């Protein structure tokens, strides 16, 4: 087993070593919080995107897709509230000259208290063994209850102060908790200030006629401004959804934790347009549906939890995060927001165009309410990748590094390996590649001993290794080795397609949502 503190470092180095993620512009020493997806990473990312798209668009007859531009009319961002309110509260440390997000400093402080709770739970679990009741313990143990109350009171106060824009109190909270700069240990802080996260750019050739633009900080607004176009041309009836995947840009100040928080990232968002007054029931529906989508990948129910928001964004009347247990703890993976009619009403007001829906059943027009699901593709990539990377002790006292990616998402589905580089074995193996490549990404490898090749494919996340040996020449059979169990079976070459398909087919995985 890899120790938790080393797991994250291992994830980052494995992602580079096996061609998943590289630092952007590495030859120039890189660009902070910007990353490139390499030959395997691009396939994994595409497979995650497809898995989301199929679940959203292909399987729901009332959800359609869209691909809106990154550039949008600048008034879009005035209307959406991003120009005025898309800010992070920042604080500088006067000694180290480092800049931090004030809310993140406070949240990290609370995470440390949560660490103490987890320690108490682990100790008690050890002491009481099978008779241990975790729920009862955390609700009755005075020390744990005290810790939890402290967390709640800190987060509630922070939420209220941020909501009221009371930045003086946010700083007071940091001082009262005696939070120090994690790098220098200094408590010499500046005031807390708001900082807008949008990147600006210019459209047009000459300086005087150029128009100030923003790179979109979320894909959602492209959906809102196209709402009526899609509704009319697609003859969509409420409730219906519009789904989109694409790049978004944020000038993140605390850009760390690898691809968890990037300055250029990809979102997969779906806006579901509903009748006003039905938002509570749709909020519940999408919370459940999205969690089921995550669970269908089999990455462990215990690694997910909901976190309902205390502080709501300027557009929401309810919001929750699906949090995932990353190597550095539970963090937001996906947001589910009940956005009311805020965005459509704002765009109506700023554009002067009606964005209403005529409901034939009600015989009335109204501005729909919107339920949004929004997940970061890169964050999902990190969740899948970090969860899949394990180091296993084997019976013969050796270890193997294996990337147990859900087979449906794996970049390469099968590696075809001739046992030897002679006796006609490579020719047969290459023929198998030719046959299978129409259906799956497959990989041919004849270099090194077969055991070494198996290990390479394990670390690469390839679910199947198919080995061609001398018996193949006699009876057209090969061995197929399963990455996770390392079990090998002798099967007919003619059956390979079906065997692989059964395990990598999207249908097989997505059906687990039902
Ligand atoms: N349209 C709503 C919206 O953008 P958000 O909570 O700001 O909501 C949604 O972002 C998701 O986008 C997050 O749950 C996260 O997965 C992803 N995300 C946000 N900022 C990110 C960043 N800087 N780097 C990577 N992913 C990010």
TrEMBL record:
Cellular localization per UniProt: Cytoplasm
GO biological process: diadenosine tetraphosphate biosynthetic process; glycyl-tRNA aminoacylation
Top EC class, one word: ligase
Gene3D superfamilies assigned to the protein according to its UniProt record, in alphabetical order: 3.30.40.230, Anticodon-binding domain (3.40.50.800), Bira Bifunctional Protein, Domain 2 (3.30.930.10)
EC number(s) stated in the UniProt entry for this protein: 6.1.1.14
Binding site for ATP: 250-252, 260-265, 332-333, 376-379
A GO molecular-function descriptor: glycine-tRNA ligase activity
Alphabetical UniProt keywords: Aminoacyl-tRNA synthetase, ATP-binding, Cytoplasm, Ligase, Nucleotide-binding, Protein biosynthesis
Catalytic activity reported: tRNA(Gly) + glycine + ATP = glycyl-tRNA(Gly) + AMP + diphosphate
Domain of life of the organism encoding this protein: Bacteria
Residues given in the record as substrate binding sites: 101, 218, 265-269, 372-376
Boundaries of every Aminoacyl-transfer RNA synthetases class-II family profile domain copy: 143-418
Record GO cellular component, one term: microvesicle
Record-stated family: Belongs to the class-II aminoacyl-tRNA synthetase family.
HAMAP family on file: Gly_tRNA_synth_B
Record's subunit section: Homodimer.
Role summary: Catalyzes the attachment of glycine to tRNA(Gly).
Protein name: Glycine--tRNA ligase
Organism, as annotated: Aureibaculum algae
Gene name of the encoded protein: glyQS
């Amino acid at each position: 087993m890899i120790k938790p503190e080393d797991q994250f470092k291992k994830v980052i180095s494995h992602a580079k070593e096996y061609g998943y993620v590289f630092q952007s512009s590495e030859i120039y020493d890189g660009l902070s919080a910007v990353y490139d997806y390499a030959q395997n990473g691009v396939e994994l990312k595409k497979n995650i995107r497809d898995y989301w798209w199929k679940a959203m668009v292909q399987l729901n007859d009332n959800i359609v897709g869209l691909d809106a531009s990154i550039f949008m009319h600048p008034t879009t961002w005035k209307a959406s509230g991003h120009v005025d309110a898309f800010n992070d509260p920042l604080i500088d440390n006067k000694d180290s000259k480092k800049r931090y997000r004030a809310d993140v400093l406070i949240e990290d402080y609370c995470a440390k208290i949560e660490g103490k709770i987890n320690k108490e739970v682990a100790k008690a679990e050890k002491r009481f063994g099978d008779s241990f009741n975790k729920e009862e313990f955390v609700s009755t143990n005075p020390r744990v209850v005290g810790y939890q109350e402290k967390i709640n009171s800190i987060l509630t106060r922070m939420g209220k102060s941020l909501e009221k824009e009371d930045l003086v109190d946010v700083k007071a909270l940091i001082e009262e908790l005696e939070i120090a700069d994690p790098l220098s240990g200094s408590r010499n802080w500046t005031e807390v200030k708001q900082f807008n996260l949008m990147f600006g750019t210019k459209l047009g050739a000459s300086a005087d006629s150029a128009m100030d633009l923003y790179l979109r900080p979320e894909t959602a607004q492209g959906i809102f401004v196209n709402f009526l176009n899609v509704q009319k041309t697609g003859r969509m009836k409420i409730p219906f959804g519009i789904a989109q995947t694409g790049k978004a840009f944020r000038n993140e100040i605390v850009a760390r934790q690898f691809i968890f928080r990037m300055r250029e990232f990809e979102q997969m968002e779906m806006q579901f347009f509903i009748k006003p007054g039905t938002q509570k029931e749709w909020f519940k529906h999408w919370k459940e549906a999205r969690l089921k989508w995550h669970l269908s990948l089999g990455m462990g129910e215990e690694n997910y939890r909901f976190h309902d928001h205390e502080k709501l964004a300027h557009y929401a009347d309810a919001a929750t995060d699906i949090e995932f247990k990353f190597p550095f703890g539970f963090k937001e993976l996906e947001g589910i927001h009940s956005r009311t009619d805020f965005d459509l009403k704002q765009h109506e007001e700023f554009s002067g165009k009606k964005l209403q829906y005529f409901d034939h059943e009600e015989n009335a027009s109204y501005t729909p309410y919107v339920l949004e699901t929004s997940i970061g593709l890169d964050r999902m990539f990190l969740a899948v990748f970090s969860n899949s990377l394990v180091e296993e002790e084997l019976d013969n006292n050796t270890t193997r590094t294996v990337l147990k990616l859900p087979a449906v998402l794996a970049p390469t589905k099968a590696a075809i390996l001739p046992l030897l580089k002679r006796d006609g074995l490579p020719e047969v193996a290459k023929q198998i590649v030719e046959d299978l490549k129409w259906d799956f990404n497959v990989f041919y490898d004849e270099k090194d001993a077969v055991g070494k090749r198996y290990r390479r494919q394990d670390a690469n996340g390839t679910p199947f290794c198919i080995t061609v040996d001398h018996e193949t020449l006699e009876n057209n059979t090969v061995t197929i080795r399963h990455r996770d169990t390392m079990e090998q079976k002798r099967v007919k070459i003619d059956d390979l397609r079906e065997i692989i398909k059964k395990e990598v087919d999207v249908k097989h995985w997505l059906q687990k949502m039902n």
